[in-house]
Design goal:
With about 190 residues, the protein is mainly alpha-helical. It folds into 2 domains: about 1-85, RNA polymerase sigma factor, region 2, helix turn helix motif (Rna Polymerase Sigma Factor, Chain: A, Orthogonal Bundle); about 105-190, Winged helix-like DNA-binding domain superfamily/Winged helix DNA-binding domain (Arc Repressor Mutant, subunit A). It has 9 helices and no strands. Helix 7 (about 150-155) crosses helix 8. The longest helix is centred in the middle third of the chain and has 33 residues, at about 70-100.
Length: about 190
């Protein structure tokens, strides 16, 4: 019976029915989050991957085959996105290592302190430019380590709103920073 329900939801989804999308999101988001978390082993990654999977579902809704298991389709997409995230994460860590090596962070403690202070000032300036609610959400997530669900409960807003605000904040930071500054900023947030 579950398969039939999914088939009906997918049929409505393919007709741009947002309520069907919302129903599928509520039905599968927690299990996809747990699946992504079991592979990536990071809550932030699992949250981002789950959001990305459903974004892809919405964008590719017309191409989804309603005659196949939607649940299998979701888990397959989630697995692929998680593996992709792990590869990107390894690449970013390698670049951070190269950045640290190229700026002699590891060999010169005074230079390290100055560079870290500059990155901290830059991070705080950019965060201060964010709209008030977005800034609050960003600080709760990145500096205080709250999950999207915890932030939503604390602020009395939906998890989706938190996800959207975090996506907007991260996009803003990427647009404002050059390649080296992004690596420095990543290092800064890793050190928090």
């Amino acid at each position: 019976m579950q398969y039939k329900e999914d088939k009906e939801y997918v049929e409505y989804l393919k007709r741009d029915d947002f309520f069907a999308f919302d129903a599928l999101f509520h039905k599968y988001s927690e299990s996809l989050y747990a699946f992504a978390l079991s592979i990536a082993r990071e809550t932030f990654a699992a949250e981002e991957i789950t959001q990305l999977v459903f974004l892809k579902v919405w964008e590719k809704r017309a191409q989804i085959n309603e005659h196949l298991s939607f649940k299998s389709f979701l888990f397959s997409v989630t697995y692929n996105e998680t593996i992709s995230w792990i590869r990107k994460e390894r690449s970013q860590k390698r670049r951070i290592g190269e950045f640290l090596h190229s700026t002699s962070f590891s060999s010169n403690e005074t230079e390290y302190s100055i560079e870290f202070r500059n990155i901290e000032v830059l991070a705080n300036q950019l965060i201060a430019e964010l709209p008030e609610k977005r800034k609050e959400i960003f600080i709760l997530s990145r500096e205080q380590g709250f999950s999207n669900k915890e932030i939503a409960e604390r602020l009395g807003i939906s998890v989706k709103t938190v996800e959207n605000q975090m996506t907007s904040a991260l996009k803003f930071l990427r647009e404002k920073l050059g390649k080296n500054d992004i690596l420095g900023l990543l290092f800064y947030f890793l050190m928090l």
